[in-house]
Amino acid sequence: MSDKFFFKGRQDSRQHHTDYDYQPKSSHKSGSKKNPLNLVVTSEARQQEVEAQLAEAGLFADIRLDSSEGAVESIGELTALLHKGETVKLEKTPSRNDPCSCGSGKKYKKCCG
């Protein structure tokens, strides 16, 4: 008889991904001691400014000074972390029988709803 007609389950047992010490990238926090930011600046004065911003924010970075002609400053990772948007919180709309938020004194369903 062939195994074609009788399913006995998966022939090879597969391992779970955590058995191989795989960690998803979401667990890595940029700017930590383990994963510092990689920044490039063009002058020593700018390097001191960036170090002050890092100290204020409590972040860690490997700063490389590139004073060659035509060098480009690369601090995009730092600006992205410093200017991260805040969570938007919306007010809950009143239910149908609650007083209206406009202050008319009527129920919400009779006034603005």
Share of β-strand residues: 5-15%
Q: How many DSSP helices?
A: 2
Task: Report the uncertain regions.
Answer: none
Approximate helicity band: 10-25%
Number of strands: 2
Radius of gyration: 29 Å
N-to-C SSE series? EHEH
Euclidean distance between termini CA atoms: 70 Å
Tell me about the largest β-sheet. Answer: 2 strands, parallel
Spatial sequence of strands, sheet with the most strands: 1-2
Structural class by sheet pairing and helices: alpha+beta
Mean pLDDT: 82
Shape by Cα distribution: flat
What does this protein structure show overall?
There is one protein chain. Helix 1 (44-57) links the parallel strand 1 and strand 2. The longest helix has 14 residues, at 44-57. Helices cover 19% and strands 9% of the residues. It has a two-stranded parallel sheet. The chain is built from 2 helices and 2 strands; from the N terminus they run βαβα. The chain is of the alpha+beta class and 113 residues long. It starts with 36 loop residues before the first strand and ends in a 31-residue tail after the last helix. The chain is flat. It has helices at residues 44-57, 76-82, and strands at 37-41, 61-65.
